[in-house]
Amino acid sequence: MQSDGSTLYGDVLSKQPKDKENEGDYSPSAVAATSLFDLCHPRHVMQQHQDMINRHNLCLTRLHEASKEVEALRQENTALRSVNRDLNKQLSTLIQASMQNHFATSDYNATPYELLNEFQGLCLGGDGGGVGEEEVSDECPTSMMEGAGDVERVMLPKSISVRSNGYLK
């Protein structure tokens, strides 16, 4: 291994043109001339090496900053999920209390069908235009960060077949 780094970075540096007449010329004679140039000018090689080190350090710094931002977003997401869960519990408690209060004060004996009709116009959250929309949870059921809290599991089929007349094998 030579101290000037010409063999270590020879392939990388040899493909960079040194003067206008050699631009785009990667023939063996041009590569040999470029390597000879690098041998004769070790300061140039050292400068290129230092530039690569600086770019590498810049990349590492940006990666470190990005990982910090990711961690902050994870913590914020966890906090928002916790607040959302608490608000859902409070809303559920409020609805239960309201229902108990409504049915306890009246001598109303409703059938399940009548109860369903009363809940038909009920819309929780949003702008009211979400009739029939399903609630989508961002929580990952296999999340290791949250622990095994109040997670309900639902059995889903292993596969779903969809038939289409337009699809040909």
In DSSP terms (H or I, runs of 4 or more residues), the helix count works out at 4
The H-and-E topology, N to C, reads as: HHHH
Summarize the amount of helix as a percent range: 40-55%
The number of E-state strands comes to 0
Q: How many strands, what sense, and barrel or not for the largest sheet?
A: none
Q: How much strand? A: under 5%
Q: Low-confidence parts lasting 5 or more residues at pLDDT below 50?
A: 15-23, 128-135
Pairing-aware structural class of the strands and helices?
A: mainly alpha
Distance between the termini: 59 Å
Q: How would you describe the shape?
A: elongated
Radius of gyration: 34 Å
Give the rounded overall mean pLDDT: 70
Keywords: Coiled coil
Coiled coil: 63-90
Region (Disordered): 1-27
